[in-house]
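Section 5: illustrative case.
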């Protein structure tokens, strides 16, 4: 009699837990993972001085897709990849293909690449040969096709999940803006501002098993330096592999934060790639093993653009003065301006940059900024939106060049060279306020509480 009663209680309890778990599965999730390791030998992206094609593949590269659907049927598509960037023209091509295949609109799609400097070139460049550019064209065309197909595949894979969010920390993120008697150089600045947080979004099935782990870090994927000729996802690629190996059945996706002025420390060897990737992966696994903050719906995805003013260069003399500068990044800008003037091209006065905000109920806001975003944009956005329930990402949707803050522009340094795609020029300090103001408007439109 006692055993029967006890068994009945256990069955009721287990049933109650199961029903409670099922009741919490208010989201649907579909996934796709596409191998994008180049099959043709081609140049690697990220270090201008490196002109040779890669020699071997150290780590395979992947593009990954997650389609999230809330209880109202609204969908958001997150696309990440082991690539130098999703440049504007590539992002536009991918989104056009997605809309043609699935009907999903531009504002429902968010792209973020890890900025690995050990992946293939994905943009046509003036200084490249016709054969080199044709190889890039073949690669990016196939890439866009495969990612769009992956989104359609992920939609067919939609399954119930619950979402949670938490945050941790890693220590290898180092500010690289070193102050010297000759100005700011690319070096090591231990006292400089750096975002060492590790945001983690986890999707679990009814049994509590992770299906998706989206995590971030605000640091260049430049553990491997300019002498490297191996294909690799750098620390972010290793971290994803480590997580997926430790949690079979889960897909790990990396979002790069505001790491435009941060490098891994130390750096320079494959052993350090694995060390940093293991550190980041272990921190994510620690967080996933605990309990995160539950995220309810609805999901709101908002997309917009903002015109960012460029420093005005009104005469050829000004461009020539920049081209003769002893400072390498100023000389680069001046030479590029002169090249455009020589070809009869007008100089850009601004750049139209995309921004996006994703809002999960009132529990989490993801503010996604384009460009190689420096760390100052984290406290700037926190001041505008409030620091709670906030994830600030850079390198999203279009990496047109560096997006410095007003402070960085005043101090000088490599990150001030600014726009290098869709025009050329250094940003005006007013670009900072334009970004922050527009993010505030999009967040309000997405429903973030004041």
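Designed sequence:
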């Amino acid at each position: 009699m006692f055993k029967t009663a006890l068994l009945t209680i256990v069955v009721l309890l287990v049933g109650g837990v199961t029903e409670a778990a099922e009741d919490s599965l208010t989201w649907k999730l579909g996934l796709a993972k596409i191998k994008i390791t180049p099959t043709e030998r081609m140049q690697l992206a990220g270090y201008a001085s490196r002109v040779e094609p890669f020699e071997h593949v150290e780590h395979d590269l992947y593009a990954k897709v997650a389609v999230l659907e809330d209880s109202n049927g609204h969908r958001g598509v997150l696309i990440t990849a082991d690539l130098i960037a999703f440049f504007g023209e590539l992002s536009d091509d991918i989104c056009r293909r997605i809309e043609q295949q699935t009907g999903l609109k531009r504002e429902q799609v968010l792209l973020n690449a890890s900025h690995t400097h050990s992946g293939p070139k994905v943009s046509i460049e003036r200084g490249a040969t016709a054969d080199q550019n044709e190889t890039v064209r073949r690669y990016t065309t196939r890439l866009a096709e495969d990612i769009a197909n992956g989104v359609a595949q992920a939609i067919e894979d939609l399954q119930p999940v619950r979402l949670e969010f938490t945050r941790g920390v890693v220590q290898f993120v180092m500010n690289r803006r070193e102050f010297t008697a000759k100005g700011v150089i690319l070096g090591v600045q231990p006292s400089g501002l750096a975002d060492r947080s590790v945001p983690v979004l986890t999707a679990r099935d009814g049994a509590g098993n992770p299906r998706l782990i989206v995590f971030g870090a605000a640091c260049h994927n430049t553990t491997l330096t300019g002498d490297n000729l191996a294909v690799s996802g750098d620390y972010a690629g290793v971290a994803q592999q480590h997580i997926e190996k430790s949690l079979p059945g889960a897909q790990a996706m990396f979002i790069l934060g505001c790491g435009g002025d941060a490098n891994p420390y130390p750096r320079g060897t494959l052993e350090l790639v694995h060390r940093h990737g293991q550190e980041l992966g272990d921190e994510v696994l620690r967080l996933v093993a605990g309990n995160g903050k539950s995220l309810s719906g609805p999901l709101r995805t908002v997309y917009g653009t903002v015109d960012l003013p460029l420093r005005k260069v009104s005469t050829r003399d000004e461009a020539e003065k920049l081209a003769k500068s002893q400072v390498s990044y100023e000389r680069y800008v001046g030479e590029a301006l002169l090249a455009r003037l020589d070809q009869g091209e007008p100089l850009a006065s601004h750049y139209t940059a995309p921004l996006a905000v994703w809002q999960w109920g009132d529990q989490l806001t993801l503010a996604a900024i384009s460009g190689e975003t420096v760390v100052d944009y984290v406290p700037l956005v926190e001041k505008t939106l409030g620091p709670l329930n906030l994830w600030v990402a850079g390198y999203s949707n279009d990496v047109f060049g560096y997006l410095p803050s007003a402070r960085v522009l005043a101090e000088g340094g490599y990150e001030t060279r600014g726009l290098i795609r869709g025009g050329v020029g250094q940003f005006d300090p007013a670009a900072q306020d334009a970004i922050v103001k527009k993010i505030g408007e999009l967040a309000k439109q997405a429903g973030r509480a004041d």
